[in-house]
Amino acid sequence: MNTTTVISQENIVVGEVANGLPLTIPVYRLKGDGTGPSVYVQANMHGAEVQGNAVIYQLLEQLKQLKLKGDITLVPYANPIGCNQKSGEFTLGRFDPITGTNWNRMYHCNSKLASQFAEQYRDADEQALKSAFKTTLIEEVDQQLNGPAYRLTTGKRIALNLQKLAHQADIVLDLHTGPISSQHLYCPDYAKTSASYFNIPHVLFIPNDFDGAMDEASFCPWWQLTEALAQQGREFKVQVEAFTVELGSQEKIDLSAALDDAHSILSYLNHKQVFIEAAYQPKIMKRYGCNLNNYLAYYAPMGGMVEYIAPLGGHIKAGEPIAKVLRMERYLSEQPLQTLSLECDAIAILHFASASVNQGTELYKFFTNVFEL
Amino acid sequence: MNTTTVISQENIVVGEVANGLPLTIPVYRLKGDGTGPSVYVQANMHGAEVQGNAVIYQLLEQLKQLKLKGDITLVPYANPIGCNQKSGEFTLGRFDPITGTNWNRMYHCNSKLASQFAEQYRDADEQALKSAFKTTLIEEVDQQLNGPAYRLTTGKRIALNLQKLAHQADIVLDLHTGPISSQHLYCPDYAKTSASYFNIPHVLFIPNDFDGAMDEASFCPWWQLTEALAQQGREFKVQVEAFTVELGSQEKIDLSAALDDAHSILSYLNHKQVFIEAAYQPKIMKRYGCNLNNYLAYYAPMGGMVEYIAPLGGHIKAGEPIAKVLRMERYLSEQPLQTLSLECDAIAILHFASASVNQGTELYKFFTNVFEL
Amino acid sequence: MNTTTVISQENIVVGEVANGLPLTIPVYRLKGDGTGPSVYVQANMHGAEVQGNAVIYQLLEQLKQLKLKGDITLVPYANPIGCNQKSGEFTLGRFDPITGTNWNRMYHCNSKLASQFAEQYRDADEQALKSAFKTTLIEEVDQQLNGPAYRLTTGKRIALNLQKLAHQADIVLDLHTGPISSQHLYCPDYAKTSASYFNIPHVLFIPNDFDGAMDEASFCPWWQLTEALAQQGREFKVQVEAFTVELGSQEKIDLSAALDDAHSILSYLNHKQVFIEAAYQPKIMKRYGCNLNNYLAYYAPMGGMVEYIAPLGGHIKAGEPIAKVLRMERYLSEQPLQTLSLECDAIAILHFASASVNQGTELYKFFTNVFEL
Amino acid sequence: MNTTTVISQENIVVGEVANGLPLTIPVYRLKGDGTGPSVYVQANMHGAEVQGNAVIYQLLEQLKQLKLKGDITLVPYANPIGCNQKSGEFTLGRFDPITGTNWNRMYHCNSKLASQFAEQYRDADEQALKSAFKTTLIEEVDQQLNGPAYRLTTGKRIALNLQKLAHQADIVLDLHTGPISSQHLYCPDYAKTSASYFNIPHVLFIPNDFDGAMDEASFCPWWQLTEALAQQGREFKVQVEAFTVELGSQEKIDLSAALDDAHSILSYLNHKQVFIEAAYQPKIMKRYGCNLNNYLAYYAPMGGMVEYIAPLGGHIKAGEPIAKVLRMERYLSEQPLQTLSLECDAIAILHFASASVNQGTELYKFFTNVFEL
């Protein structure tokens, strides 16, 4: 095909381990003609959540056949420590093994920036404002990266290096998975209409609160800017859309599912006019929404061995069994097989990765107070 | 039901952790009328291999409705450290987290015992010989348990306590699982005919070598005794049968599969005349065998993210793809999707639990040079 | 001795692990005559920080010889999961191994309570107010403990059980250690004068911000109440004092140092009139203070193998070497031995427990802008 | 200095991790004039045992000022996985985190080789025999490294790459440390006289049994060859000396102690005539020996918190206290402070790295039946 887009690769250094070897991350870039929004996609920030790498593979296979309006940057293996942190057969890459800090809670957000900026750029036009704010966000990250080296934790340095790439884009997609999980999407409340362009049946709507994650770090400053300008009576659309795309279960590579996921993302990007003449369209499907404060974590009410019953993506009625807990040390002294249920209707989104649970282990997460999109 | 068999419970102490809390294991016992062989079943020696507990649950549910000839002892949660050793969401219970020693390689076997015994009991009749040897095996274990406390490692103490129970039985079943695995059975070579009474399609035949595992610790001394007596020209059947039953995948509880597995075990026990008038019969199915030295471990020839293709239990032809390895850091520099295959026909028995592998991680295990039973 | 105080023991259940065994914590109680403040002391919330158990041992040995005005409750082994969580030879007990959450960030604080209370008890006298607020704090905890079991994480359940005990006391001491550390004390700003009654040379003054720790959970509500009443123009002393006592290094038991630490605590308690006629007095020593916002974390500016040079408790001048980093993979290409220093004067309080560090590992913590108490 | 020896560096690739990054090890080489024995030194095969890297640093600093007869190869950071495997603050690098296999038990030894060789080279002179055997040992390793990639585990591949370097040398030193440990030396029985040229007070004499370690892998084949030739009546000195040098405690870098250790090694190498005119001489000191079968492991007879009393390197009398075990959960019910002792005289060589121990944790290792060298 004579219209293919060139892919270039850069390896960025985001740290160093104890024996001095550099931690590097591959960054793939495709150039657009500059007439569409730019896109940033990363995967595998949590070590066990590998399927996003396969999705980036399938995206590259598609993208190289397309003509692009906007630049696209794709980053697999975003966390070279998390990726390679084994403990037994599984990948222990959800948090820094030294400190316990979740790798996806270390991004940066200066919550004072938006209001200062709204004041300072009161008279700027939309394009100037957008451009200046983007520059400032990148400078903020650079300032930290270029400050005294002794001020940055391992995870912060990785996060800032990624965030610097993400701030250059208008659309940010952070590819994750749950433990054992159905597909779902974290979508900022203001971007509700975009949610229906992904082929993802379950959408979680999140508010303008920064809790350290990549998606929030990408959209919160812009959302705050919109709000600050609204207080001046000025309407200014949030300029950046950012999503956490939960692809399914961790510790799995499935190339065919990855192709479906790539199509889902391409459909959304097509809607955002990233491509010149591409055919990707969303599937017709029922999509269900839930607000973050109705996203229910169900912790094991007792220790034991769990058979998970509520099917992922399944609509559960109040009182229906969601799991059975086997407690063999009590075979004679009490009912050794306890049935758990929920007190309200819900959709089961994900469950714990192991059958062995302590009392208080997060067993399931449920959408409650569900609505149709 | 007026014919039910009484179940009794004892909790045995097998150690103490750092804050002084005792490590206890529940032991369930059912009495027979003394006319049949006695049975020992344990589960969950490896922390993540929990399905055996569900099988013991289903066994108890069945056994309490039967009349027994032989005594039956059932031990779920055989390893209270392994059971509760979490690292991230998964259970890190395959080895002692302090030393790395596999919990199922710490049983005891005195390889000199059999020949000494054959000499000493040259003139004893079969029954006396069996009874004396059994007593001696138990005494050997007791001697170690009652020796200076400072001589026993954590794992040895747990193993010896279990082994003491196992040596009292004529039939020993150690319930395990693979990582992601099809059902298979470790069967000592001399007990080939028994293998067909389990509903397990894949049987691994193992020689008379002690490598520290429960099944070997149970049958090796008896097999050695048979061999020592054979050198005297005396025929003496191996008096004990011991199997490692691999139930499927780790980290899973499936009560319905557990019922099937219980039926499989009950069918074997029925064949060994443990019950008075029970109906359990083996399923008619093709069973495939493989000798241990043909059990092929296939280690990842490169690091990467693996899509497992060879289906578990599936018969693979030489050269067919068994897995794909995604190597996204080389998307531009070489073929990023490598296909792996095997140089001979095989049955895929189990594969690694995670998609993330280092070069040299055990990817698959295969039966090769397979024969039908 | 005919004046000894009786010690009683209760074992409280704070959870259950996967094989159904209960997690229990021993609670020791001594009764006072009711005329003095009551005291709560706990140790070993972080698994590797064991020295507090030895301090509780030495406290009990002393206390049983004293007459008490106030009740004293002592809780060693406060975290039965953390205590027993090994990974290699060391204890991995700083965070929940499943989630990464720091065990000492899971206590409860309802920050709205104080202002509501100040309004509601506007006319109550000091004693009534104190008593009612204490009752309410305990009820808040009980409410959560008695709510739906599926709402509590493993760590929250442990924390709430301990917090319920702590809220009953007027003085709360949470015994911790650093990794490799000198003795230091976390002291709420309002309790400055109390700091000098401990034999601890380094004191960190912390503001009225709740970040999930036991000391904060104990004093923040009372401090908030004082502030809320101050806004009414009413003076109301903060009724509770709570400290995190950092005893030294983790993974060490030293009974003689524990006796010194016990004397330090007894000296403070004697000052607070917990005892009838006791002789414990603080040592005469220089004590240095530092405000929490001047507590400097120094992260490794490069990966490597570290020789720690700054002595713990030592006063470091700006520019002096604090550590050397060996980078053997660069022996020929650059200076393989890098010297690190600080840009300001400081006292070295603690350093990392291992010589192996990634870029960004917390290497040292320093008091800066130090003042004498 | 115009006489300095040139150091060259090569980075060898010994594997690949999951995100495809290569595992590399730096190899430093110095050339001799060919008239003396060649030397191989490696460090840090176990991740936490870092001090050997500092010793290699100090060796390089000395060696570059010397004239060498034999070639010297030095390999710091020998295990790039173990080096960087953190779990909490400590380095979990004693065993493969996936399998539990000790990294220093994966070397190769073909125990049939020596006797075949003795037969085949019956008529060869000493030099030819040595040279051919060395070539064969290297070829054996190469054969495995160049065989099907799917046959090698992660650890085997690392071990074989190092072993290939080691087999090229006449003297092999593997630098390790204990957990908390005094200096000691593993010395093959035939090299007894060499032991006194190291400045190491405690020497463990080991027999000709291969258990997978580097030192054994280096000397066992040669020792077996000597024995096989002795059976022909031919005297043939063991041509290779290999030692495991235990430098002290893990997780520590001490550059000044490293200089002492470098002098100790240089003194031995000087004795072996590796240098032209060097002044290194052993210190005059008492050296104590112990045979491996008298090296006593003392496992914790109960769970608890341990104060280690027996000083490392200290000569302990039978019955003297070696440790106290605090068991605070039994403060009222039994003696909470248990004293442990040994039933024979001994030298305490090392103890466990943590105060928290399960029943059965290896508490101490002792030399017993000690003799003076």
Automatic annotation (TrEMBL), chains A, B, C, D:
The keyword Coiled coil does not apply. Pfam families: AstE_AspA_cat. Transmembrane segments: none annotated. InterPro entries: AstE_AspA_cat, N-alpha-Ac-DABA_deacetylase. This is Succinylglutamate desuccinylase/aspartoacylase family protein. It comes from Pseudoalteromonas arctica. GO terms for molecular function: hydrolase activity, acting on ester bonds; metal ion binding. SUPFAM superfamilies: Zn-dependent exopeptidases. Its cofactor is Zn(2+). PANTHER family: BLL3975 PROTEIN (PTHR37326). Coiled coil: none annotated. Keywords: Hydrolase, Metal-binding, Zinc. Residues 36-142, 145-271 form the Succinylglutamate desuccinylase/Aspartoacylase catalytic domain.
